[in-house]
Amino acid sequence: MRPSGRNLAQMRPISIETGVMRHAEGSCLIRCGDTHVLCTATIEDNPPRFLKGTGLGWVTAEYGMLPRATHSRNRREAAQGKQSGRTQEIQRLIGRSLRAGIDRSALGERQISIDCDVIQADGGTRCASITGGWVALRLAVNKLLKAGAIASDPIIDHVAAVSCGIYAGQPLLDLDYAEDSEAGVDGNFILTGAGRLIEVQMSAEGATFSREEMDRLLDLAQAGMADLVAAQKAALA
């Protein structure tokens, strides 16, 4: 039995509320169980300097966690004068995951910045950020299409992410903090709506894993994608 009482292949409740920020071109609040992340998208007419004259657009991301998003207070990284390695790694992951689902030539020479701020953390914050970040990106692109700023839709497919792991010898879908902190194997799976892989992050946290176990976790992740994409579609309907 999982600490949460869920079955092995059961996702936490997912909800995505859109239009939560007045000034952002796209915004949503995604809740995956007790993990809540605010995601916003900002359209900037100027692309990064290295893309000038290429005709290509860019999607980038920033990630942060509020001081009391966790059980004890964490100092703001701005107060420390630098971002942690974990923060840098996560925001790069979000950016490259979302870029995998967009045609940068159709976007044109502009940048869309996705900001993901964790309000409450209970495991899977990077996965929730990617899933919600895609919704914010979709909303921002819709505004470009409506304004006639771009001729065709640059978004190729849905992008979402979910964690899977091995806890107490059992493969689990969508780990919360109690499971993630004790998991023998921990993985994050980023996929498209069509089920194609964008990135897989897997590591042994005290126990090695077999090819068969890895395949089982991937099967769970692909099954979980159906729930995530359904939540994205429902939010945008």
UniProtKB/TrEMBL annotation:
Gene3D superfamilies: GHMP Kinase, N-terminal domain. Phosphate binds at R86, G124, T125, R126. Its EC number is 2.7.7.56. It comes from the Bacteria. GO terms for molecular function: 3'-5'-RNA exonuclease activity; tRNA binding; tRNA nucleotidyltransferase activity. Residues 69-88 are annotated as: Disordered. The keyword tRNA-binding applies. Signal peptide: none annotated. Keywords: Nucleotidyltransferase, RNA-binding, rRNA processing, Transferase, tRNA processing, tRNA-binding. InterPro entries: ExoRNase_PH_dom1, ExoRNase_PH_dom2, ExoRNase_PH_dom2_sf, PNPase/RNase_PH_dom_sf, Ribosomal_Su5_D2-typ_SF, RNase_PH, RNase_PH_bac-type, RNase_PH_CS. GO terms for biological process: rRNA 3'-end processing; rRNA catabolic process; tRNA processing. It catalyses: tRNA(n+1) + phosphate = tRNA(n) + a ribonucleoside 5'-diphosphate. Pfam families: RNase_PH, RNase_PH_C. Residues 10-140, 159-223 form the Exoribonuclease phosphorolytic domain. Phosphorolytic 3'-5' exoribonuclease that plays an important role in tRNA 3'-end maturation. Removes nucleotide residues following the 3'-CCA terminus of tRNAs; can also add nucleotides to the ends of RNA molecules by using nucleoside diphosphates as substrates, but this may not be physiologically important. Probably plays a role in initiation of 16S rRNA degradation (leading to ribosome degradation) during starvation. Belongs to the RNase PH family. Homohexameric ring arranged as a trimer of dimers. This is Ribonuclease PH. It comes from Paracoccus aestuarii. The lineage of its organism: Bacteria, Pseudomonadati, Pseudomonadota, Alphaproteobacteria, Rhodobacterales.
